[in-house]
Amino acid sequence: MLSLYCYIAISRYMNIDLFFIKRWRKKMISEKIGMDDIDCRIMDLIQREPSLTHTQIAEHVNRSQPTVGMRVKKLEKLGVLKYQAGVNIKTADLYFARIDLQTKNPKRIFSMVENCPFMLTAFRLSGSTNISILVAGSSLKDLDHVVNHHLRGDPEVITVHMDIIEDVAGDLVLPIDLNLGYSKIDLENYCCGKCKD
């Protein structure tokens, strides 16, 4: 309800149509990646309910099932539509942290993240902090061991800052190597071996 009041206030007093801006922004994004309105509706349905069949999607977008199938294949081929199974960070009984660091060699850090089962994903950033990494462990001590072992002793890493993730807004599903078990680890004496250069 508050957003409706904000919309009315901004529209009336600033003469700005926020719904127009929202539609325009959506149109700009969809045009940039080569999607029309039907593609956008299909993407929206799949994101909200990935288990929908092509027949069910076709009913929602008023198209035939073969047409929906062709559009889904097109979106997959473009790389716009991807499917990912994994663990929901919001509900998993694990500890998660975000590590922000400044490094002289972001490519090497990315390679390490791709091979370390404790490091879930990384983002390259602009600015002095140029990498942000999501890590998982069974305890806060495990997270600290991962950071100390892989990053704090690295001469190419200039600064390291770790924040514990306390909550996630909405679901966030990421693949996690559950075979590792996330049991107690001692990275001084044990490393998965995948992280070595």
Helix content: 40-55%
Note the beta-strand portion.
15-25%
Radius of gyration: 22 Å
How many domain modules? Answer: 2
Oligomerization category of the chains in this entry: single chain
Strand order of the largest sheet: 3-4-2-5
- Can you count the helices? 7
Give unreliable regions as ranges: none
CATH architecture of the largest domain: 2-Layer Sandwich
CA-to-CA gap between the ends? 54 Å
Q: CATH topology of the largest domain, what is it called?
A: Alpha-Beta Plaits
Shape: elongated
Arithmetic mean of pLDDT: 81
**How many strands in all?**
6
What does this structure look like?
The chain is an alpha+beta fold and 197 residues long. The protein folds into two domains: 2-78, Arc Repressor Mutant, subunit A; 87-180, Alpha-Beta Plaits (2-Layer Sandwich), CATH 3.30.70. Helices cover 43% and strands 17% of the residues. The strands form two sheets. It has a four-stranded antiparallel sheet with strand order 3-4-2-5, with helices on one face. Strand 3 and strand 4 (131-137) form a beta hairpin. It is elongated and about 60 Å long.
